[in-house]
Amino acid sequence: MHLYSASAKLFTEDVLLNRIAEKLKTSFSDQMGRRVSPNEMNAWRNSLQSFAHVLSHFQLTNVGIVLEMQLPLTSKRLDCLLTGFDETGLPSAVVIEFKQWENAEASAIDDCVVAYAGQAHRDLLHPSQ
Fold first, then answer.
1. E strands, the chain, where?
2. Is 52:8 a contact under the CB 8 Å cutoff?
3. What confidence tens digit (pLDDT) does each residue in 23-36 have?
4. Phi/psi of residue 119, each to 5°?
5. DSSP code of 19?
6. Which 3-state string (H, E, C) describes 44-71?
7. Are strands 120-125 and 112-117 parallel, antiparallel or unpaired?
8. Whole-angstrom distance, CA of residue 21 vs CA of residue 44
9. Could you tell me how far CA 56 lies from the centroid of its own chain?
């Protein structure tokens, strides 16, 4: 299950026309049967606007995008799966986890970073974990 999938071109258009968060909200409500929090809506708007800018800047137009994909046999979701082909023509995919952190630092705890969240600096699991 996922909330959104499109080409990079359509995704960028959805972001530029300010309709991406609404599309995700509708899909979330339809699939999950519950409402999206205002914080998640804001996170989608902020992260996806920045991501669309990166795609445009680097002219990554020949890729596919899947947003909020539920991982099999879990309740966890990944933020973004970017799909395409590598320089040799083989299928390739990259998982992208968006964070609203302004910065992060090394933590004394393995697999964690220190980031400002919940109005304090906290040890948080690194997004790749």
1. 2-7, 64-70, 77-85, 91-96, 104-106, 112-117, 120-125
2. no
3. 999 999 999 899 99
4. 65, 25
5. -
6. HHHHHHHHHHHHHHCCCCCCEEEEEEEC
7. antiparallel
8. 6
9. 16
- Cβ contact 93:83 at 8 Å: yes
Helix (H) and strand (E) counts in the chain: 3, 7
Other residues' Cβ atoms within 10 Å of the Cβ of residue 14: 20
Q: Where are the domains of the chain?
A: 2-98, 100-129
Nearest Cα to 41, choosing from 29, 54, 59?
Answer: 29
- From residue 112, give the alpha-carbon distance in Å to each of 38, 60, 71: 27, 30, 21
φ and ψ at residue 54, rounded to 5 degrees: -65, -45
State the DSSP code for 36: P
Residues 68-123: tens digit of each pLDDT = 999 888 888 899 999 999 999 999 999 998 887 777 888 889 888 888 777 788 88
In terms of Cα–Cα distance, which of 64, 91, 92, 68 is closest to 6?
64
CA 15 vs CA 75, 89, 120, 123: distances in Å? 26, 28, 31, 32
Instruction: Report d(CA 83, CA 18) in Å as an integer.
Output: 23
